[in-house]
Design brief:
Elements (H helix, E strand, L loop, with lengths): L8 E3 L11 E2 L5 E5 L7 E7 L4 E7 L9 E6 L5 E4 L9 E5 L4 E9 L9 E7 L5 E5 L16 E5 L10
Parallel strand pairs: 1-3, 2-4
Antiparallel strand pairs: 3-10, 4-9, 5-8, 5-10, 6-7, 6-9, 11-12
Length: 167
């Protein structure tokens, strides 16, 4: 499947499984990669600033990939700062406030350690937190005339406490 976006894209290159092999990228670019083999791990390193808020949104199923992303943000010493918040059918959003100036590594793998030619992903990167994100339990429906359908909508609130109106 093809998706058109308005941000520059960075495509991972192998090898990047080990910390010292991490691909350095510009955090103004989204990340694109493929988990080529079962157990494949992709690592990306970037330079961040103290108190900068980063948001990484996994995109897999909506582009036809079976990948269930497990994304972690690590500090320069390999300590975990944050991990993806994988809620229901949501693809997973990792939000973190960087504790210091310096290099950080984003570690990307499949939650079940799967991989292969179809296990592609995109990680959309943003710095400004959206007030909330919505995920719906289905993506297609066949509703007869006059019929109804029920779906679950999950809201992930990023500090937003006001009402959310759906129509």
């Amino acid at each position: 499947q093809l998706q058109v976006v308005d941000r520059p894209q960075f495509v991972e290159t192998e090898p990047n499984n080990k910390p010292e092999e991490a691909n350095r990228f510009d955090p103004t670019h989204d990340l694109n990669g493929r988990l080529d083999t079962p157990g494949d791990v992709d690592r990306f390193v970037f330079t961040g600033k103290k108190d900068q808020t980063v948001i990484y949104t996994g995109i897999t199923r909506q582009q036809g990939s079976p990948t269930d992303l497990n994304v972690k943000l690590m500090n320069k010493d390999g300590g975990q700062i944050a991990a993806v918040d994988d809620t229901g059918t949501n693809e997973g959003i990792l939000t973190a406030k960087l504790p210091a100036d310096g290099d950080y590594t984003l570690v990307v793998e499949d939650l079940s350690k799967r991989g292969g030619p179809n296990y592609s992903y995109r990680i959309a990167i943003s710095e400004a937190a959206q007030p909330f994100a919505l995920a719906v339990s289905g993506d297609t429906a066949n509703v007869p005339a006059g019929g109804t359908i029920s779906w679950t909508v999950t809201a992930v609130r990023n500090g937003y406490t006001g009402p959310i109106e759906l129509s």
